[in-house]
Amino acid sequence: MGRLTSALQDKLLKAGMRISVEEYLACAMAFVATGVVLAYLLLELRPSTAAVLLVIGTATAVYLPFRLAKFRAETAEAEIPYVMRTIASEVGAGVPYLQALMDGAKAGKILGGAIEDAISLYKKGIPMERALQSVGESIDSEKVRRAFLHLGILYQSGREATTIKKLADEMIAVHRAEAKRFSAELAMYTLVFVAVAALVPALFEMYVSIGSLFMSLTLSQKQAFYIPAVVFPALSAGVLLWVYLRIPSFMRR
Question: In sequence order, what are the residues at sequence separation of 6 or more whose Cβ sits closer than 8 angstroms to the Cβ of residue 58?
């Protein structure tokens, strides 16, 4: 349990959530319990079904910081080409290193915020290399840590910014490959959404209208209302969220 708590705290920080793991779990479990109680009362669920929903909600609450940390890391990785190219251009034009960092920070939200944190640490007396390394480790991405490492090397050496230019070009090549992969998968995502948004409700309607002629249905009036009105739209929204998370981060900009 201690390892899980430590891992959760680490992922909360890397997700940019400045909250203790105890506070997060208390809020998350209160939200899950409220949702399960409402579902139990509105849909007239069996206690066993409510218990299953409670377990699923708890597992989701534990998993969420891991997913948010990954999402933040993917967003930061998508910003690497823009930020690094800006800094490389500024340094190549003879702009002072600190000013180049400030200008580069404007080219990205997550990565830009991390650079601003590094500058803030530097102004407090922490060496620039250590400040960059520290904020780089606050994002759950090896590529981001590598980018900040190169920024630290550039600060130490004062050489031309060819290394970070090369890093930006490598990330652009990765983005192109990811865009091709997503384009190839888009047709499958469309079929999944059509199946969930149209076919599943249609099959449910057939089950209710035709099945009632041959068998006794156990659906209550509340269930017959809330399943089409709430459950199916929630499933469709879940599929849309899943597809959105599958979109390469740089395409969400």
Answer: 29, 32
So what's the pLDDT on residue 201?
A: 87
Q: Return the pLDDT at 213.
A: 65
Q: Whole-prediction pTM value?
A: 0.76
Q: What string of DSSP letters covers 174-199?
A: HHHHHHHHHHHHHHHHHHHHHIIIII
Helix 142-157 vs helix 128-137: crossing angle, to nearest 10: 170
CA torsion sign for 86, 91, 93, 96 is: positive
The answer to whether residues 28 and 63 touch, using CB atoms and an 8 Å cutoff, is no
The arithmetic mean of pLDDT across residues 200-204, rounded, is: 86
Distance CA 115, CA 74 (A): 16
Of 4-18, 169-183, 216-230, the least confident = 216-230
- Count of Cβ atoms closer than 10 Å to residue 203 Cβ: 11
Which residues make Cβ contacts (< 8 Å) with residue 222, sequence separation at least 6?
42, 43, 44
Query: Among 127-131, 161-165, 190-194, where is mean pLDDT lowest?
Result: 161-165
Residue in the block written with tokens 């702009």: 95
What average pLDDT does the chain have? Answer: 87
Degrees, nearest 5: CA angle 59-65-70:
120
Residue whose tokens read 């007396």: 125
Hey, what are 251's tokens?
């395409």
Q: CA-CA-CA-CA torsion for 64, 246, 142, 169, nearest 10 degrees?
A: -150
